[in-house]
Amino acid sequence: MSEVVRLTLVSHAMTDAMAVGRFPVDEELNALGRRQLDELDVGTADMALCGPEVRARQSAELLGLRARVDARLADLDCGRWRGMGLDMVEPDLLTLWLTEPARGPHGGESIVEMITRVRGWLADISRTPGRTVAVTHPAVIRAVILNALDAPPKSFWRVDVAPASCTTLHFRGMAWTLRSGSDHR
């Protein structure tokens, strides 16, 4: 039997954009976010990775991880909506984006494109025995979960990922298993 692959996904902590419901820009964690990470213990890892954005790198650092940046863990590219509040986006375009995962009316990445990007990363991780901790974004974690469960893209918005939370998966040679509970090691 092949060696078990353990993957712990850590959602970066709170930012000002998250707190006010704004599309993200490359911003630092806010004071609440830094406090959230004080209470989180992700244990040790054979490999630590993070998204390229400041909020992901800063979260990894505050968790004591020496994480290598992996561009495939980047947040969903929201194109021209970056920095805008939901109330600033044309309602018809927002509805289109939320209901048709293959569409990207903001000029950025569609949900389907992101799920495909993350699928390639997840396939690579499935061939990496040991424990990997990846600090990334709620959208990336949603995409990982959909890939692991072979769920349709329309399910993307039905997965809620809290700031500074952990999601754990195991791979035992054939398929990913999503693990629920407080023990994320």
TrEMBL record:
Q: Indicate what this protein is called per its UniProt record.
A: Histidine phosphatase family protein
- State the coiled-coil residue ranges: none
Transmembrane intervals: none
Q: Which InterPro entries match?
A: His_Pase_superF_clade-1 (IPR013078), His_PPase_superfam (IPR029033)
Q: Which SMART domains match?
A: PGAM
Task: Specify the species.
Answer: Mycobacterium pinniadriaticum
Q: Cross-referenced Pfam families, in alphabetical order?
A: His_Phos_1 (PF00300)
